[in-house]
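Task 17 of the worksheet. Students: predict the tertiary structure of the chain below and write it out as structure tokens. Keep your answer in the requested format; marks are given for formatting as well as content.
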Amino acid sequence: MARTDKGIPVDQLTPIEAAAELAELAREIAHHDALYHGKDAPEISDADYDALRARNLAIEAAFPDLVRADSPSKRVGAAVSEAFGQITHAKPMLSLDNLFTDQDLTDFVEQVRRFLGTSETPAFTAEPKIDGLSMSLRYVGGRLVSAATRGDGTTGENVTANILTISEIPRTLPADAPETVEVRGEVYMGKADFAALNARMTAEGGKVFANPRNAAAGSLRQLDATVTAKRPLRFFAYAWGEVSRPIAPTQYETVQAFGRWGFKVNPLMVRCGTEADLLAHYRHIEAMRSSLDYDIDGVVYKVDDLALQERLGFRSRSPRWATAHKFPAERATTILRDIEIQVGRTGALTPVARLDSVTVGGVVVSNATLHNEDYIKGIGQDGQPIREGRDLRIGDTVVIQRAGDVIPQIVDVQEDEDRPNRPAYEFPQLCPRCGSHAVREHNEKSGKLDAVRRCTGGLICPAQQVESLKHFVARNALDIEGLGDKQIEFFHALEDPNLWIRTPADIFTLERRESLGLARLANMAGFGATSVRKLFDSINARRAIALHRLIFGLGIRHVGETTAKLLARAYGTWPHFAEAMQAAGDRMSDAWTELNAIDGIGEVVAEAVTDFFAEEHNRAALAALLAEITPEAAEQPVATDSPVAGKTVVFTGSLEKMTRDEAKATAERLGAKVAGSVSKKTDLVVAGPGAGSKLTKASELGIEVIDEDAWLERIKGL
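Model answer:
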């Protein structure tokens, strides 16, 4: 579900409210990332998505101790499709943070100056932000050897054969290019080419694409490269990954070198010396946006000096030296025809608006994900009116907006003379799937009702069972080929105990049970001997499963994919993890302290995981599952020559020769784990003036403590 109101002002949130909202945002954004990057099928508008990320960042800035391991601020893209081979990026392909106002630009420039410890504004480049598919092209010895999508930022899809069909991408580079170089940019489709393609597809009775971005992504992800060759794809180069030697000292000069090598580079890229110059170029590009033959959704700013880029470094999912200044959303009006209720795996009842189809910015939209029943009533999370207090009623004329994708947000309701005669929408008090009571729980700590109404049916609610199973077999979890959403719904609905799937363990006992029953799967509609064999082979292929995939697949509240990986890395094996989680159920135990000391694991996540293991029915389900599968030990980080690689480092007190952010970034670049608190797992504490309780605890635990000068000496030359 996508929230479209800003909720309680961040400065008015309590820590408990902030932690709960960060957990909800992590789940929500991960869902939309998977749809956008993995399936080219976005469910919300860019503006709605950007609002979610902005809200997440604002809360994290106000409550830095609550930043989650699975935070969207630490994540890029989505998991890689196994339909293609995989390529691990030599250097990660990160995303960009977003700006939305002139003040945001001022703040960004100030953050850069503050990080660098200077009052002078460095030069920046500014260029259009192309709405396409990110691509990394690897050249060795002057020849194109591979091409990969961004994927999850670390691993991408191998689309080399398809990239070779794009005429604007050089097959070879001139002699002055480095021996090894990864040229990165955006694959896109021009507006005129997009219109011509859709006209041809219509005439041939084929699929019509929603917008040029989806058309480009769908064309590039064809398993048959001859199909891609018939699609008018283009490419702009604007960045790079691994290089065997520097190309130029600045961003601008490096991109111009790409142009000399035969790549198309954007002619609207300029170098700006001041903040005013950046804003002026933003206004210039915004004014000509509609006349361009390619879709853009903003302007990208990058620090020009590559030495300064190196100092600024990276956050977990984005560089500190670059950002995207997004354009305002586009709007249209349509009729709200219905509000449907969907039930998720946690029992949450989510309202979805069904709209008369309308074109907004060249894209046809017909759905909008609403937030909750208060949002429908015109009430924000802080209890204050939104849309001037106007509720949403079936039959209303509503104002919607979008910035570049399929499903928009409803931002207003238009009054008309018939509106008073339309009944107010009554949110269901019973679950539409199982008939159990649907309630809004009272949060004793905050004294408020939860924003979401949830079904109380639990395991008797088919929606919750089905959605939990769908999550278990999803791409980022067990990833069982041939057992998708439709198949899960089919097996769950069966009444034959030899064929149904009601629990995760049932998946792995299906082949044995099916062979004992009278009804055979191969005789059922939609199946045959070959498809049944493939299904069983796919299931058996997942009997040995990566530890982080299993942890994520359990569907524990607040545990996203990144959190699962963090827990897997911290505990190494399933027995160690499970034993520690049960021990951590005692809030006074060392196990609880160690769990909370893991960088990025806050109290909300710790409570969710330990509560899960405290439930007898969960442990019973796990025992049945573990009788069928073997979780593999987590891969540990590869050792490097850095003396701090693999060590857990805590910084405390004031740093005088570099900023705290720069110190943390350097430690992470050298392979260290930076923690926010001291525990028995801490290897090193770097203490500056003013160090307090962390220094005291480090001394009590006998942990090595050094000052800033010793830290700099230890990492000297790295």
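Marker's comment: Confidence is low (pLDDT under 50) at residues 1-6, 77-82. Residues 15-39 form the longest helix (25 residues).
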